[in-house]
Every structure is written in structure tokens, then in C-alpha cells.
């Protein structure tokens, strides 16, 4: 084995070695050395994390068709390759488990100890710990006082294997949300989805109070204390969960046997129905920070709502082209 392992510290060395036909294990001093290596080569690449150096490797999101093409080249049936390509687009960790002969070592321990707190926090996704309304909503998710729930959150952020939560500068968030959904999403219950619906409609229908300010006064909104009750962190977290439920929820059954993806589409439909019923156009404007995720969660329902807002003698969406008076 030692004869096949080579340490590589410069670009010229790796350019020569990748042309070798015999499979090698190349230990790279710098991950940047792998940047221009062809994908179709027989070698295994390992990055050596030097003592005291940062060892984070950011892997960009891959296109599903690229993954599908690579799997097809390995003689995988087209239907399975397409399904795994879509999975890999969402989460490389989930793709690794799906391809592994023994996925157990790649499966976090938390999957076997799932409870209502984890399920509800999966749906909340992220929140600001210093925002009182965020704290109220997160506390309601389990019936615990927020201080008690925060202790549970600290435990989940200090997991023995792969932590469930991360915490930085007052912001709590589910780590690797796509992978967490692939692991835990099908365990969500009807009660969990009912809770999610209530929270989404409460949080995302809050209008932005800065819309009532003159354009020349908006820059002072923060100083004047004019802001939404709920944080953008909570809004974005809920919208991302909607998108994940809409794309990964086909195997989940909600109230009345409705699938998770259908539940997400109905929720987006009801949310945008309220937006279209608002003649002031304030709710549509206020949804601007999460519209992309809503469209991802329910593309057809989103387009239907847009089309409805463009119909009639005085289309609602013409308001987006009107400048507010100075």
C-alpha cells in the first residue's frame, strides 16, 4: 500500500502523476492542486490537513445532470441515476449514503433518537436568539419555555458525531439542512405539519412596516426602531423548509394522507391567496425576501398566483411598477 501513496506539494508534480495509468493515492499538500485535474482519472485524492491549518473544504453545489451523467457512465439505470442526481444536487452527504453498501457509518446517531423538539426545529430551520418574537415561536414548537428549549438546542449543537444545530453570533440554524431533511423529513407527523402551517402563515404574512415610510426616510428605519417583529433569519428559515418540503416531501404523509410536497404547495397557495387579496400590495412587497424560495416550493401555484394578480381591469401587480410618493 505504501508504494502506491505519494505526497504531492507542487502543480508540476501532480500534472505528471495524473497521467499514470496505475491507480495511485495522491496526498495533496493544498486542495487547490486538484482544481485542474480531469474528472475521468483512476487516482484517489486525499488532502493532508497540516497541524494548525484550516481544514475546511467548500464543495460547490453540483448540477443534477452532471451527477446523472457520471452515474449513467457507470451503467446505472437511467431512472435511478436521475433520482440520485436530484438528490446529489440537494446534498452530497445524502448521495454518499444512497450509494454506500453500508450507509450506517455515514448516518448520524441523531436519526435513532428523534423527538418532537428535533422535528419542530427541523421545520423552523433558523432563528435569531435575541429576537423576542422568534423566541416565542421557537418555544411554542415544543411547549417548553425558551430557556429550557435553548438548553436542548445547546445539546443538539454539541452532538457527539454530526451536530444537528449550529450557533454563531446569536443565530441558530440547522446544519446541512438539505441532508437533515433527507434523513429526518419522512419522520414528520401530521401535528408537526399543522404546527408548521400556523407558524408560516403567522410569520410570512407580517408586512414590512418600512413600506409606510417615505423613500427618503427609509434609511432611518433601524435608528427609529421600525422593523418587523420577526427576524429575517426566521423568515428565510421557514421559507427554505417550505422549499425542501416541496421538493423532498413526496414520501411524507400529512393530515388526511396528503403528501408533504402537496402540503407545501397548498400552503404556498394559501399564502399567496392572502397576498392577492391585499389591495394595498403590501404583502406581495413584504414577501420579496422569500419569493424565490416560495416559487421553488410550489412553482405551479406561484405562477397561478402571479397570473391572477395580472388579470382584471386593474391588475394588482401593476403596483410593482408604481413608485411610492416622495
Description:
The protein is mostly helical. Helix content is 45%, strand content 7%. It has helices at 11-17, 64-72, 78-90, 92-99, 116-124, 132-140, 146-157, 177-184, 190-204, 232-248, 260-277, 282-286, 291-297, 299-309; strands at 5-8, 25-28, 44-47, 126-128, 165-168, 171-174. A three-stranded parallel beta sheet has the order 1-2-3, with helices on one face. A hairpin with a 2-residue loop joins β5 and β6. The mean pLDDT is 84.
Average predicted local confidence, pLDDT: 84
Taking the sheet with the most strands, its summary is: 3 strands, parallel
Strand content: 5-15%
Strand segment tally: 6
Gap between N and C termini: 74 Å
- Structural class of the secondary structure composition? mainly alpha
Work out the helix count: 14
Q: H/E order of the elements?
A: EHEEHHHHEHHEEHHHHHHH
pLDDT under 50 segments (min length 5)?
A: none
Q: What does the overall shape look like?
A: globular
Helix content: 40-55%
* Radius of gyration from the alpha-carbon trace, in angstroms: 24 Å
Please state how the strands of the largest beta sheet are arranged side by side. Answer: 1-2-3
Quickly list its features:
7% strand, 326 residues, 3-stranded antiparallel sheet, single chain, mainly alpha, 6 strands, 45% helix, 3-stranded parallel sheet
Could you outline the blueprint of secondary structure elements for this entry?
Layout: E1 5-8, H1 11-17, E2 25-28, E3 44-47, H2 64-72, H3 78-90, H4 92-99, H5 116-124, E4 126-128, H6 132-140, H7 146-157, E5 165-168, E6 171-174, H8 177-184, H9 190-204, H10 232-248, H11 260-277, H12 282-286, H13 291-297, H14 299-309
Parallel strand pairs: 1-2, 2-3
Antiparallel strand pairs: 4-6, 5-6
Amino acid at each position: 500500500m505504501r508504494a502506491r501513496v505519494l505526497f504531492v506539494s507542487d502543480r508540476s508534480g501532480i500534472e505528471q502523476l495524473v497521467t499514470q495509468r496505475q491507480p495511485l493515492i495522491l496526498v495533496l499538500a493544498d486542495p487547490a492542486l486538484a482544481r485542474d485535474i480531469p474528472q475521468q482519472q483512476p487516482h484517489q485524492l486525499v488532502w493532508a490537513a497540516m497541524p494548525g491549518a484550516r481544514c475546511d473544504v467548500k464543495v460547490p453545489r453540483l448540477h443534477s445532470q452532471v451527477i446523472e451523467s457520471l452515474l449513467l457512465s457507470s451503467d446505472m439505470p437511467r431512472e435511478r441515476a436521475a433520482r440520485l442526481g436530484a438528490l446529489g444536487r440537494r446534498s452530497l452527504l445524502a448521495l454518499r449514503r444512497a450509494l454506500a453498501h453500508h450507509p450506517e457509518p455515514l448516518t448520524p446517531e441523531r436519526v435513532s433518537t428523534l423527538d418532537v423538539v428535533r422535528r419542530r426545529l427541523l421545520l423552523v430551520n433558523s432563528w435569531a436568539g435575541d429576537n423576542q418574537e422568534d423566541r416565542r415561536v421557537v418555544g411554542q414548537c415544543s411547549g417548553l419555555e425558551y430557556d429550557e428549549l435553548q438548553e436542548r438546542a445547546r445539546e443538539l449543537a454539541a452532538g457527539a458525531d454530526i451536530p444537528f444545530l449550529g450557533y454563531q453570533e446569536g443565530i441558530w440554524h440547522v446544519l446541512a439542512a438539505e441532508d437533515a431533511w433527507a434523513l429526518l423529513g419522512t419522520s414528520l407527523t401530521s401535528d408537526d405539519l399543522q404546527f408548521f402551517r400556523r407558524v408560516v402563515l403567522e410569520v410570512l404574512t407580517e408586512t414590512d412596516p418600512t413600506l409606510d415610510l417615505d423613500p427618503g426616510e427609509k434609511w432611518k428605519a433601524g435608528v427609529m426602531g421600525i422593523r418587523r417583529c420577526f427576524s429575517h433569519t426566521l423568515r428565510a428559515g421557514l421559507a427554505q423548509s417550505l422549499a425542501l418540503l416541496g421538493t423532498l416531501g413526496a414520501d411524507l404523509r400529512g393530515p388526511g394522507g396528503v403528501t408533504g410536497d402537496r402540503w407545501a404547495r397548498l400552503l404556498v397557495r394559501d399564502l399567496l391567496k392572502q397576498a392577492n387579496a391585499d389591495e394595498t400590495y403590501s404583502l406581495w412587497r413584504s414577501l420579496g425576501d422569500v419569493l424565490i424560495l416560495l416559487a421553488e416550493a410550489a412553482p405551479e401555484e406561484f405562477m397561478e398566483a402571479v397570473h391572477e394578480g395580472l388579470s382584471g381591469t386593474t391588475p394588482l401587480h401593476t403596483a410593482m411598477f408604481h413608485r411610492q410618493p416622495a
